[in-house]
Amino acid sequence: MALGLGALSLSAHAQWPNRPITIVVPAAAGGTTDIAARVLAEKMGQDLGTSIVVENKAGGGGGIGTAQVARAKPDGYNLLMGNIGPVAINFSLYKKLSYKASDLRGITNVISVPNILVVHADSPVRNVQDLVKLAHSRPLNVATSGVGQSPHMSSEMFRQKAGIDVNLVPFPGAAPAVTALLGQQVDYMIDNLPSSMPHIKGGKFRALAITSAERSAQLPDVPTMTEAGIPMQVTAWFGLLAPAGTPDAVVQQLQQSAHKAMQTPEVRAKFAALGGVPGGESPAQYDQFIAQERQRWAVIVKTAGLSLE
Question: Which CDD domains does its entry note (predicted)?
């Protein structure tokens, strides 16, 4: 009897996946989380022999979509393209969350990117110090792609280190925040580099500074924040997670498929063009990384005195 059950279990697992997989993006379409999910979904779907559907579930600083996956059946068919906001920052920023750290397990990091400080190309602001001077003359409006996301936290860090007062205008994702700056409804924004890159290259945005330790190979003339006189460094990251309880064998297969996709010249070229670095860590390494990031951001949030209901 035991042998029969064992054979049945192995047979059932061997059939995975036998239906479409859903990757939930806890942000609006068009942002880095969404871009990373769609690039990966196509390649992984081909590798796994099934279709992978990307579902955008924005709101709550990424918490709504993240909670949906946290509550989903742990069968490998419900995944999250998480990011630094809902997976790390939210745990110290929000007093209450509808999910716990233990509700999710990591699969692998997908892409890491710096953030970029941009103004509209028609703005009189030519550099960071110009922006700081303008902020001292009048209140500035700043677009952010969701409360608690790395652009929001970067904007808070910039405000503190530059000693300026600004009005933060949160949007449910990078795309609507970018649209607001394109329409000159706000004065500037700090965005994940991939979602602003097309507008920088297209001449619609002027890039003032980047939050990485080194300049971007894609934007060699843009100084780092530190070079521009604002000592701050932020790297945003985006990766696959699954509900806790998802079988190890399924998580391993997903990680291997994602890693294989990230090694293809096509994906590496797309990520490089966005100014991003591909991931590919093992599930254990990714879980350890996420735990470290939660601790690091808890210190930053506490120091800034930030707290949200």
Answer: PBP2_Bug_TTT
Mean pLDDT of 190-203: 95
Among 70, 88, 91, smallest CA distance to 79 is for 70
174-186 average pLDDT score? 96
Percent of the chain with pLDDT over 70: 95
Q: What residue type is 169 in one-letter code? A: V
Main-chain phi, psi angles of 259, to 5 degrees = -60, -45
SS3 240: strand
> At which residue do the structure tokens 């922006």 appear?
131
Report the alpha-carbon angle 75-79-83, nearest 5.
150
**DSSP 8-state class, residue 230:** -
Asked if the peptide bond before residue 17 counts as cis, ω within 30 degrees of 0, the response is: yes
Token reading at 168: 């933060």
How does residue 110 score in pLDDT terms, banded at 50, 70 and 90?
very high
Two tokens, residue 288: 């350890």
For residues 21 and 48, is the Cβ–Cβ distance under 8 A?
yes
Domains annotated for the chain, with CATH where assigned, are 20-113+235-304 (3.40.190.150), 114-210 (3.40.190.10)
**Which is it for the CA torsion 274, 276, 281, 287, positive or negative?**
negative
Length of the chain: 309
Q: Label residue 213 left, alpha or beta by phi (over 0 means left) and psi (-120 to 50 means alpha).
A: alpha
Q: What is the pTM of this model?
A: 0.85
Beta pairing partners, 21: 52
Distance CA 303, CA 308 (A): 14
Locate tokens 């379409």: which residue? 29
